[in-house]
Amino acid sequence: MIEKDNKKTIRSWAFFDWANSAYNLVITSTIFPVYYVAITTTKEHGDEVTFFGKTFINTVLSNYALAFAYLVMVVLLPILSSYADAKGKKKFFMKLFTYVGSFACMALFFFDLKHLELGIICFVLAAMGYVGGVMFNNAYLPIIASTENQDKVSAQGFSYGYVGSVILQLICFVFVLKPELFGITDKSLPAQISFLLVGIWWFLFAQIPFKALPKDVANEDSLSKGFIKSSFSEFAKVWKQLKQMSFLKTYLFAFFFYSMGVQTIMLAAAGFGAKVLKLESGSLIAVILIIQLVAILGAWMMSRLAKKLGNINVLIIVVVIWIACCIYGYSITTENQFYGLAAIVGLIMGGIQSLSRSTYSKHIPENTTETASFFSFYDATEKLAIVIGLFSFAFIEGITHNMRQSIIALASFFIVGLIFLLILRKIERKETLKL
């Protein structure tokens, strides 16, 4: 029997967020987007690039590539998670995706305009590695923490992630803004070194949870079954359970729609600042750092607020604030306005991510061995939301050549998510009355 609420185990588990959040900050949010826009914007072709013979707007290509990576993972995660639950392979797949992601980041060291195809492929593999690792890490939350502590533990994980990513970002920040301190004259090299450092950081710190997390337990009924049979029988079992759980079903719809907005804003923020507001790379990185630091406060604040108001009520409040941010973001024109919006986004970003994970985890059946399978639905829902969100964002920009139109469209996703959360609150009240 695995001991729940063990402080050492929880700290080790939180270090996985510390390890991989550097990817999320440096590669998806700050240095990579700024570097990518810089090297793919030329006097000869403007912001258009050629990828395997086809022409794209640079940011449209990167958004499509990220959407493709997430779409592949939406298909793979339910199958692999079911197999992992059946065969006791959660940690195995957690390691596999971590190593794929971290080595892909290291390979981005060689990315420049001459090697655009290589860069985009590594960008896709890094995203797939990150998504897969996070899903299997999430699956450990109900295993290592009791229901009443999962909000707190989830917040601890995200807080570790924000702190770890900021530390590495500051190191990379020195290379990018002060390359002369290291005798660097090549303008591309500071960013390339940053990508290499992300891969090394991710790989090394992931060894802490790999060593400390409990061993997997295989399902005895599936030991004699092959990959396909064990995967699909486990998937069918969890799917049947999930269909009968009205709270989780409705929650996944709400999560799907508001995640379209949250994740797309997080991934597109740096590109918006660079292309629309013409911010310098230093200013962009500083803004994203502000978001990460404020997000630490947001994660802990929402965790405590949820104890008083309840998880769903807090999520409703946060989604309303997100809608207001989209409307305000459409009209901003100055750097200071961008800073102010970034501070608010950071606060609600940390809260909504942490609380979303723990809310789902708390409603998974207790003592179930299918935690990876249950969380595959959660993570697949989030990644499918990102696919549609990014595709919509890129598609609208491609038609209008105006990112502002893309941002205002995101408000509609939040509004639909809000409607489902209001429905969910009614379901929660009915279930409480039955008890």
Could you describe the 3D structure shown?
With 435 residues, the protein is mainly alpha-helical. Helices cover 79% and strands 2% of the residues. The chain contains 16 helices and two strands. Strands 1-2 form a two-stranded antiparallel sheet. A hairpin with a 2-residue loop joins strand 1 (48-51) and strand 2 (54-57). The two termini are 28 Å apart.
Main features:
single chain, 435 residues, Growth Hormone, Chain: A, two-stranded antiparallel ribbon, 16 helices, 79% helix
Radius of gyration: 21 Å
Going by CATH, the architecture would be: Up-down Bundle
Number of strands: 2
Number of continuous helical runs: 16
Q: What's the domain count?
A: 1
Strand % is under 5%
- Biggest sheet strand order reads 1-2
Largest sheet: 2 strands, antiparallel
What would you call the structural class? mainly alpha
What general form does the structure show? globular
Distance between the termini: 28 Å
Order of helices and strands: HHEEHHHHHHHHHHHHHH
Overall helicity = over 70%
Mean pLDDT score, rounded? Answer: 86
Name of the CATH superfamily: MFS general substrate transporter like domains
Remind me, CATH topology? Answer: Growth Hormone, Chain: A
Q: At the first level of CATH, what is the class? A: Mainly Alpha
Q: Which regions are unreliable across 5 or more consecutive residues at pLDDT < 50?
A: none
Secondary structure: elements and pairs:
Layout: H1 7-27, H2 31-40, E1 48-51, E2 54-57, H3 58-87, H4 90-107, H5 116-138, H6 141-144, H7 150-177, H8 189-205, H9 207-212, H10 227-243, H11 246-275, H12 281-309, H13 311-331, H14 335-362, H15 371-400, H16 403-434
Antiparallel strand pairs: 1-2
Helix pairs in contact: 1-5, 1-7, 1-8, 3-4, 3-5, 3-10, 3-15, 4-5, 4-8, 5-15, 7-8, 7-12, 7-14, 11-14, 11-15, 11-16, 12-13, 12-14, 13-14, 13-16, 15-16
